[in-house]
Amino acid sequence: MKNIIEKINKIAEKIKKDVYIMEVCGTHTEAVARYGLRELMPKNVKLTTGPGCPVCVTSQEDIDAIVNLALSGIPVATYGDMMRVPGYYGSLDQAREKGALIFAVYSIDEALTIQKKYPNLVFFGLGFETTAPMTAYAIKKGLTVYSTHKLFLPAMQALLKIGELKIDGFLCPGHVSTIIGIEPYKSMKVSQVISGFTAEDILVSVYMLLKQIFDNKKIVENEYLRSVKKEGNPKAYQEIFDVFDIANGNWRGFGIIPQSGLEIKNKYKKFNAKIKYKKILDQVDFSFSRKLTSCKCGEIIRGLKSPQECSLFKKVCTSENPIGPCMVSSEGACNVFFRYMK
Ligand code: SF4
């Protein structure tokens, strides 16, 4: 470790300007804070957080939709962290307190088991290329799903296109890369390294990025060789597109990103909760979902602010009383900073 930190310091000194590296994976956000890596960086190397937490990027509209479905009597299942994300109509946890039938699950198989007892169960599907194959598998087995699944690369491309923030390099997500492989990243003309999740992985990846930046290279390198193959996992990737079409995706912090969402194909429309329960969803007033609050999750997701720059951080918004999704999710920047930054 000492050796790699020395190498980082040496190359950063040679670069002689501020360098902005964004990690775009919730697990990296957590690891960087847990190992104190931000503090180990030379002054001119800035590590920023990006849109890598699936719970955090789920739009307010989608949360309000699923809470309304639950309140109208439809049983709902989803992954644990999503239960506490507050929407305009409350969170799923609060809907459960009001009598709605809601299940927190750890796996898609659990949702399939619950569906045997509650055939009209709706699974609130979220996440990127890592979780979408499992949801696709469950849809093929007959599970009804409200999909908020997203493709990850369009968000990275959107960050570069919007250009609000200087990004010299991306620490690319390890888990997503195990599915999509290396090729798709090549469409982006920016320095990129696919990184694993140990402290050493991340430090080596930062060094590789700094080396690229110093050499003025904008290529994709793979540090996470033990898990990420060049071709990814074609079988899992194919499973996604057997069941989902690429559509516009609604992201917290961005709004609509074209061609970034996964919607259930017509062939499986009887398992698409957005079609099956259209009448209920058409009754929901989503104008409130877009109401501005003082929560800065949107800016944090785009790397424009750090959690400490939100006036509610640690004062009003805590892990026990989260105001926004970035404080709810264990991979959310606010929650991570809350736990690790003193
Ligand atoms: Fe939102 Fe809380 Fe984070 Fe502020 S500290 S941005 S209110 S989640």
Which descriptors would you attach to this protein?
342 residues, alpha/beta, five-stranded parallel beta sheet, four-stranded parallel beta sheet, 17 helices
Radius of gyration of CA atoms, rounded to a whole number: 20 Å
How would a textbook summarize the main sheet?
A: 5 strands, parallel
The main sheet orders its strands as 2-1-7-8-9
Q: Please count the helical segments.
A: 17
Structural class: alpha/beta
Form type: globular
Are any ligands bound, and if so which?
iron/sulfur cluster
List the helices and strands and how they pair.
Elements: H1 2-15, E1 19-23, H2 26-34, H3 37-40, E2 45-49, H4 54-57, H5 60-71, E3 76-79, H6 92-97, E4 102-105, H7 108-117, E5 122-125, H8 132-140, E6 144-147, H9 153-162, E7 169-172, H10 174-180, E8 191-194, H11 199-214, E9 220-222, H12 234-243, E10 244-251, E11 255-264, H13 273-276, H14 278-282, H15 297-301, H16 325-328, H17 333-340
Parallel strand pairs: 1-2, 1-7, 3-4, 3-5, 5-6, 7-8, 8-9
Antiparallel strand pairs: 10-11
Helix pairs in contact: 1-11, 2-17, 8-12
The structure holds iron/sulfur cluster (SF4).
